Amino acid sequence: MRYCSGCGAPVELKRPEGDLLDRHVCVGCGEIHYQNPKVVVGAVCGWRDKVLLCRRAIEPRSGFWTIPAGYLEIGESTEQGAAREAWEEARAQIAIDGLLAVYNVVRIGQVQLHYRARLLSPEVAAGPETRELDLFAWEAIPWAELAFPTVQWVLHRAIVLRDHTGPYPPALGPEEAPPQRSR
Amino acid sequence: MRYCSGCGAPVELKRPEGDLLDRHVCVGCGEIHYQNPKVVVGAVCGWRDKVLLCRRAIEPRSGFWTIPAGYLEIGESTEQGAAREAWEEARAQIAIDGLLAVYNVVRIGQVQLHYRARLLSPEVAAGPETRELDLFAWEAIPWAELAFPTVQWVLHRAIVLRDHTGPYPPALGPEEAPPQRSR
């Protein structure tokens, strides 16, 4: 940030009185421009014994598999955002069940909220940011080709809770791979 | 937003190709300036049979009672942010126990994450944004003088879980007042 988004004058980094951190402060109008982490919302979307994954058509990690997820927008709840991403990336209509995980990815300023959801129909199709998509058996998830560590963590979490009904706490950090189920 | 924070040229509201929403786009460098909801983190801090509340010294809702809470900063996790706010507003050192609630306050673009925490010591003191503070018996919470609806909701949630040990799901919306406990 180099200029004030309100008046166009330059900003300088300095510590406002009473603050504990340096901020971008406008030398013209004095406005303090705070920068804050962003919220990413996603959904692990199940259909019977399968889970929806999308192969990314965009960077970063183009070509790798992910759950539908993206930045929360102004004017929507986190649940609405997760449902919108499922629609945008996979033309999937979903019913949200509960909060699977809250992950802090501090290095890149993200708080990720991932929900467990149920596809309302298996009719899905790649949106513009998706190269292809598929419903994978849980035992056939392409672990080595997942786009991000948090996708791996939340899929582990979903497997741990696979047969769980009733309320559950969200994972707040990485989770070990659950033991393989006997077939 | 009227000017580009990167180059200082004016921005205009328009829909980037492939986007579903209008964005602030710089007429000079073309940068798209996304605006996103902010994360608020807070903690219900218990000490034996009491809970820490702070009377706000700043607007909005100056003079009303709240739990320590505020905007998440870049470079910290949500748990670290909640602990920092407890320190800034109440000079409280806390141990976080679990996630009590995730509230969407869509109208003002906030996602609030509130934790259950334990004071490590009853030595607390008002920070600069706090007029006074106190440890309240749960039965003596000043319900009519709370600063925000979400403070009421999360205190209800904490009371519901008051004697609960083990994992618990976060509340995702308002909660009814729990029945009064017999004394």
Question: What are the salient characteristics of this protein?
Answer:
homodimer, 183 residues, alpha+beta, seven-stranded mixed sheet, three-stranded antiparallel sheet, 14% helix
Briefly, what is this?
Two copies of one chain form a homodimer. By secondary structure, chain A is an alpha+beta fold.
Name the biggest interface.
A-B, 44 and 44 residues
- This entry's quaternary arrangement is homodimer
Strand and helix order of chain A: EEEEEEEHEEEH
Low-confidence stretches of chain A: none
Outline type of chain A: elongated
**Number of continuous helical runs of chain A:** 2
Using only C-alpha atoms, the radius of gyration of chain A works out to 20 Å
Main sheet: strands, sense, barrel of chain A = 7 strands, mixed
The chain-level structural class of chain A is: alpha+beta
Q: Determine the mean pLDDT of chain A.
A: 94
Beta strand % of chain A: 25-35%
SS elements, strand count of chain A? 10
| CA distance, first residue to last residue of chain A | 55 Å
Report the helical percentage of chain A: 10-25%
Overview of this protein structure:
2 copies of one chain form a homodimer. Chain A contains 2 helices and 10 strands, in the order E-E-E-E-E-E-E-H-E-E-E-H. In chain A, strand 2 and strand 3 (32-33) form a beta hairpin. Helix content of chain A is 14%, strand content 34%. The relative contact order of chain A is 0.18. Chain A has 183 residues and is of the alpha+beta class. In chain A, the strands form 2 sheets. In chain A, strands 4, 5, 6, 7, 8, 9 and 10 form a 7-stranded mixed beta sheet that branches. A 3-stranded antiparallel beta sheet of chain A has the order 1-2-3, with no helix packed on it. At the A-B interface, helix 1 and strand 8 of A face helix 1 and strand 8 of B.
